[in-house]
Write a structure and sequence with these properties.
- With about 450 residues, the protein is α+β, with helices and mostly antiparallel strands.
- The protein folds into two domains: about 140 residues, D-3-phosphoglycerate dehydrogenase, domain 3 (60s Ribosomal Protein L30, Chain: A, 2-Layer Sandwich), CATH 3.30.1330.90; about 280 residues, 2-methylcitrate dehydratase PrpD (Orthogonal Bundle), CATH 1.10.4100.
- About 50% of the residues lie in helices and about 10% in strands.
- The longest helix is centred in the middle third of the chain and has 22 residues.
- It is globular, with a radius of gyration of 22 Å.
- The chain starts with a helix and ends with a helix.
- The model has no long low-confidence stretch (mean pLDDT about 95).
């Protein structure tokens, strides 16, 4: 199983990798398929199912789908151009995807929210159709947004494409046990093995530049979030808090009365800054998802700014180690809140972050695996219950607590020798089973939990 570091960490837009980025990618894929087909389309139609329907408005799924049909993609998204395109689409009831001319598409009539049962493949399903002049369907495709911005057609999912395939690599581990065995046999760290795998598909310069860009976008997101003020969109009237926390922490610096536990506030600050930017529809990096995008950058920023001896030259090793663990979570369970609850999002993010931190602190592969297991174990059973379908409550604060757990897990692992009772593989399998057994209303539908016990306005 080969899952690139650049599959786990993708530059995109908020508020959701599965509900915003995924549908935009799916729509763009459908347009590409239509271009390559022999059919001449006159119109388009889309239907959203399962979690994409129940929480679609709060996650801007409708907006993302429309923009994807108009030719927009997350990696090259321009907000000003998107706003202009949306205004034109609503006014003219048409879209103009590059290379296909003008096609009929009335957002109010041709974008359907189906609140019935989910499609059979995954909770995040959507069906896209191309129509002829009479309104008959000439091309239809079902897509599933399976978390982290990954998108599969129904045929790909049925064919086992959930695990992204790839080239033959020198260290093809599918489990943490295999990963540790290969590390022991080779004498390499997890990051070194992951780097060797990546170098089968790209040059060293491309890999290093890509890793630098990932961190640059993450860091810029933290910095923007710590400066921005105002109310987040969506109707909950959630006030941005990161700047106020940052100002207060800076004012307290150097004062004798500052309590040791204040370091937790710094970690929460960095994570909340990212997730407030995500909630506002800003540029973020999936890590492994948008809903959990703050945990890993917060952990790195904590390490860089507060841990003696931290070096930016090791950020690549942090990201590569984290990606290896994230790949195991995705391959053997899920990183989708709609599939396994928030344990699959913030839980996986905390495991990735703990592993990365243990690695740059000098941990052995066994200590790194132990750190990831501790972090994931103590997120097991966590539901995904966003109020009003918005990635705001409880998601923003939850990222802060996820970062704190990641740091604590890494610290605990570094106090030991890597020998422990519960393996990371067992923990990931438990997450899969727990997600399977979890009631659907607790899996990103906003039909249970906080979503029904907190007023929506």
């Amino acid at each position: 199983m080969f899952l690139s570091v650049f599959d786990m960490f993708k530059v995109g837009i908020g508020p959701s990798s599965s509900h915003t980025m995924g549908p935009m990618v799916a729509a763009a894929r459908f347009i590409a398929t239509l271009k390559a087909s022999p059919f001449h389309a006159y119109g388009l139609r889309a239907s959203l199912h399962g979690s994409l329907a129940f929480t679609g408005v709060g996650h801007a799924t409708d907006r993302a789908t429309i923009l994807g049909l108009a030719g927009f993609e997350p990696a090259t998204y321009d907000n000003d151009k998107a706003e202009a395109a949306l205004a034109q689409i609503f006014a003219t009831k048409t879209v103009q995807p590059p290379g296909l001319g003008t096609l009929r598409f009335d957002p109010k009539a041709d974008l359907l929210f189906d609140f019935g049962p989910s499609l059979p493949g995954h909770a995040n399903g959507m069906i896209l159709r191309a129509l002829d002049a009479q309104g008959d369907v000439i091309l239809e495709e079902t897509y599933y947004s399976i978390g982290g911005g990954f998108v599969l057609t129904a045929a790909e999912l049925a064919g086992g494409a959930k695990a992204v395939g790839g080239p033959v690599v020198p260290y093809p581990f599918d489990t943490a046990a295999q990963m540790l065995a290969m590390a022991k046999a080779s004498g390499l760290s997890i990051a070194q093995m992951k780097r060797a795998n990546e170098l089968t598909v790209r040059s060293k310069a491309e890999l290093d530049q890509g890793l630098e860009r990932i961190w640059a976008v993450m860091e810029a997101c933290i910095d923007r979030g710590m400066k921005a003020e105002g109310i987040l969109p969506g109707g909950l009237k959630v006030r941005r808090r990161a700047k106020g926390i940052y100002d207060a922490l800076m004012a307290e610096r150097g004062l004798n009365m500052t309590a040791p536990h204040t370091i937790n506030d710094w970690m929460s600050l960095y994570a909340m800054a990212v997730n407030e930017e995500n909630a506002a529809g800003g540029q973020v990096v999936t890590a492994p998802t948008n809903g959990a995008a703050g945990v890993l950058p917060a952990t790195i920023r904590y390490w860089l700014d507060h841990v003696p001896g931290a070096s930016r030259s090791q950020i690549g090793d942090f990201l590569l180690t984290a990606a290896a663990v994230g790949g195991l979570c995705k391959h053997n369970a899920s990183i989708s809140g709609a599939e396994c609850g928030c344990q699959a999002e913030v839980g996986s993010a905390a495991a990735m972050s703990a592993a990365g931190l243990a690695a740059v602190l000098g941990g052995t592969p066994e200590q790194v695996e132990n750190a990831a297991e501790i972090a994931l174990e103590h997120h097991l059973g966590m539901t995904c219950d966003p109020v009003k379908g918005l990635v705001q409550v409880p998601c923003i604060e939850r990222n802060g607590l996820g970062a704190i757990k990641a740091v604590s897990a890494a610290s605990l692992a570094m106090r030991g020798d890597g020998i422990h009772l519960v393996s990371l593989d067992a923990c990931i399998e438990t997450m899969r089973q727990t997600g399977h057994d979890m009631h659907e209303k607790y899996k990103e539908t906003s039909l249970g939990g906080l979503a029904v016990n907190v007023p929506n306005c």
